[in-house]
From TrEMBL:
Cofactor(s) this protein cannot do without: pyridoxal 5'-phosphate
Taxonomic placement: Eukaryota, Sar, Alveolata, Dinophyceae, Suessiales
Protein's UniProt name: branched-chain-amino-acid transaminase
UniProt keywords, alphabetically: Amino-acid biosynthesis, Aminotransferase, Branched-chain amino acid biosynthesis, Pyridoxal phosphate, Transferase
EC identifiers of the protein: 2.6.1.42
GO BP: any one term: amino acid biosynthetic process
Protein family membership: Belongs to the class-IV pyridoxal-phosphate-dependent aminotransferase family.
Length: 297
């Protein structure tokens, strides 16, 4: 069954301060964000009617734009409010929330000093990033050809659209070989992250995860570190070389979309879907759910 294209979903999209019908939320082909990747975005999830860690996401969106040299013309509180209103308007309690900000069409060259800064927020139903059955078995990852760039080469702390070019190439190459995703090394050849999620390993009852010095320090990553510490687990944030994967017992990915997803294979290395991965998966599920679920209007 062919999925409905994303430009043909139902409902309204919040665009520059007002709701517009889904099909009318359009941009012109001569948009700076499209040609020069002057665009930043967020990926958020609502559970039981509440957007998990909404303010952290809105703050990161504003900061991502600043790193790219532009100021979103709304405050963090206004962005939070617009996300919540869009969720309510769409009538979902469990959904994916996508704010995106970009430079418009007033100037069309590398320089875009006078371009309008636009902000849109779309909300749609989106159950699981990885196939739920595969998720419990552990997903398989290939090694990506591309590496996370040196922060001296690209604004790696920004959730900028341009940084996803190498992620899409890497994920497509992995999928063509039957894998669910790809693990990217960084420019120094150290383990970095998957194409849209952070990575953790387990060895001798302790967690190991790379230092996020050239890739996103995910909100889910930080949440899972807290949850692990609450369980009394030791979390080692450190440099991880790819050969070390031979000695790790378990592995999982974390991300707003991926949530906590166990990994069974990365290239030549195999992992068990073990107790710690399963426990943190369940702890994360409990953490994201508000104490009192908010009903859809
Ligand atoms: C490249 C990349 N790394 C990591 C993450 C995880 O970030 P978060 O947990 O904030 O969703 C994401 C998802 O946004 C991502 O796209």
């Amino acid at each position: 069954m062919a999925a409905v294209p994303f430009d043909q979903l139902d409902g309204d999209i919040w665009m520059n301060g007002a709701f517009v019908p889904w099909a009318d939320a359009k941009i012109h082909v001569l948009t700076h964000g499209l040609h020069y990747a002057s665009s930043v975005f967020e990926g958020e999830r609502a559970y039981g009617g509440r957007i998990f860690k909404l303010t952290e996401h809105s703050e990161r969106l504003v900061e991502s734009a600043r790193i790219l040299g532009f100021e979103i013309p709304y405050t963090v509180a206004e962005i939070d409010d617009a996300c919540n209103k869009t969720l309510v308007r769409q009538g979902f309690t469990d959904a994916y929330v996508r704010p995106v900000a970009w430079r418009g069409s007033e100037m069309m060259g590398v320089s875009a000093q006078k371009n309008r800064i636009n902000l849109a927020i779309a909300v749609w139903e989106w159950p699981s990033y990885f196939d739920p059955a595969e998720k419990l078995k552990g997903i398989r990852l290939d090694m990506a050809e591309y590496r996370r760039p040196d922060p001296a080469t690209a604004p790696s702390k920004s959730k900028a659209a341009g940084l996803y070019m190498i992620c899409t190439i890497s994920k497509h190459a992995a999928e063509a070989k039957g894998y669910a995703d790809a693990l990217m090394l960084d420019w120094r050849g150290r383990v970095a992250e998957a194409t849209g999620a952070n990575v953790f390993f387990v060895k001798d009852g302790e967690l190991h995860t790379p230092v996020p010095d050239c890739f996103l320090d995910g909100i889910t990553r930080r949440t899972v570190i807290d949850l692990a510490k609450r369980r009394g687990l030791t979390v080692n944030e450190r440099v991880i070389m790819p050969e070390e994967m031979a000695g790790f017992e378990q592995c999982f990915l974390t991300g707003t979309a991926a949530e906590v997803t166990p990994v069974s294979e990365i290239g030549p290395y195999s992992f068990a879907v073990g107790e710690i991965a399963r426990t943190l998966m369940a702890d994360y599920e409990a953490e994201v759910m508000p104490a009192t679920a908010v009903a859809a209007e």
